[in-house]
């Protein structure tokens, strides 16, 4: 089953954010068309695109609705096929590293030295750990051929 096309939007030149979101989703769909997708997954993606195209037709198409559709599609791809865009895991683990490693490390350091101002030292450490873990996962996905040739920017 083929992935359907996005309907063109007339206001793209007036709104640079809308144009960027639209072109990014279009590139993601282009990359998906290169792959053999299971019938059920292709049907789900086509339903998302049809819903988005109906928003464009009613004049309600916004950058937010495009990004929400794109996020749902990426989650579906990751869940079903373990296929992700470039730097997906790095971006995901950047925040997770700060929250799961950085803050606890900063609290432990601050408590042990009796100065809670040292809490902030843990954040860059967690950031570095998160980037390292995420980059490793991205590299593994690339080597296994599970990475799409598109980078998603928020």
What can you see in these coordinates?
With 154 residues, the chain is mostly helical. The chain has a two-stranded parallel ribbon with strand order 1-2. Helix 1 packs parallel to helix 3, helix 2 runs antiparallel to helix 3 and helix 4 packs antiparallel against helix 5. 23% of the residues are buried.
Shape, please? elongated
Overall radius of gyration: 20 Å
Strand order of the largest sheet: 1-2
N-end to C-end Cα span: 29 Å
β-sheet strand percentage: 5-15%
Number of helices: 5
Number of strands: 2
Q: Secondary-structure element order, as H and E?
A: HHHEHHE
Mean pLDDT figure = 89
Helical fraction? 55-70%
Strand count, sense and closure of the main sheet? Answer: 2 strands, parallel
Alpha-beta classification: mainly alpha
- Unreliable runs, pLDDT <50, ≥5 residues? none
Lay out the secondary structure.
Blueprint (H helix, E strand, L loop, with lengths): L15 H18 L5 H19 L5 H19 L2 E3 L1 H26 L5 H25 L3 E5 L3
Parallel strand pairs: 1-2
Q: What's a quick, concise take on this entry?
A:
The protein has helices at about 15-35, 40-55, 65-80, 90-115, 120-145; strands at about 85, 145-150. It has about 150 residues and is mainly alpha-helical. Strands 1-2 form a two-stranded parallel ribbon.
Notable traits:
154 residues, mainly alpha, two-stranded parallel ribbon, 2 strands
